[in-house]
Predict the structure.
Amino acid sequence: MMRFIICSIYAVVLLFPWARGGAEVVFVGISTPGLYEIPTEIAQRKGFYKSEGLEVRKVVVRTNLHVPALIAGELDYSTVSGIIGRASIQGLPVKGVMGWFDRPLHMLIGRPGIKKLTDLKGKRIAVSAMNSAPHIVLREAFIQAGMNPDKDAIILAVGGSGDRLAALMAGTVDATPVDVAYVEKAEKVGMIPVLYLGDVVNFRLRATLKGVRLLKENKPESLAIMRDYLSVSAPAAEKIYDFSLRSLNIDGLVAKSTMDAEIRLAKEQLKITEDIPEDKLMDWRFLKEATAQK
């Protein structure tokens, strides 16, 4: 049986709720609290899910466990995308149906002394999971910098942004891409922003879409939610908000250039040569139905 997911190519994937005997509780998997899933937090706090008859519960799940959890029905939604997009390309029964961020929302953070990507040659870098979106975009950054992503650095799967930042602070790794919501915390302990990965690659859907649009249209309320949910200062929330607007799309669709880049990177990673049509990853029918409803 095919199951459906909502996704932002780099930032967000949500599984379309499947009927479970009329149950109204849905479980949303996140890898760590962050900007990438802030529209769902806005939708929850503003009561948009409740107005659709849903009680949304977020669950922190390691990135590499999202696919099996979705397929097993242990999660109804997931807010990771890279691994799930590649799972769909490989024929697993999931598809994207919505997106709200068109670019990665990760900043590559390094230990003191690391100022540019080439300084990471021979160093250890933490990612959430192998073949996750941050890992794939990081590989692309290496290639653009003339580095070999398979030989010039040691990649370690560590977990969510919080776990990766802890590993960086402990000296276990030398750098890691983290959700931009963690940049302030990293800088406070002396870590150095190296590269914004967003520059490397140019329940009901209606309820989540309302959260996306509020993020764009109501800056004061969005900033207040960010400060509280992400536990950051007012200046940091302003910076995070600016990053979100650089990637945000308010119609729930993923830009063609973003989709093309995601497919290209997935083909390279999976060593696939044949063409992959967009409908292999995405099914826009549910989004069209949601936006058509008044």
Remarks:
- The beta strands are 5-8, 12-15, 25-30, 55-60, 77-78, 106-110, 123-127, 153-157, 175-179, 192-196.
- The longest helix spans residues 256-270.
- The first strand starts at residue 5 and ends at 8.
- The chain is about 40% helix and 15% strand.
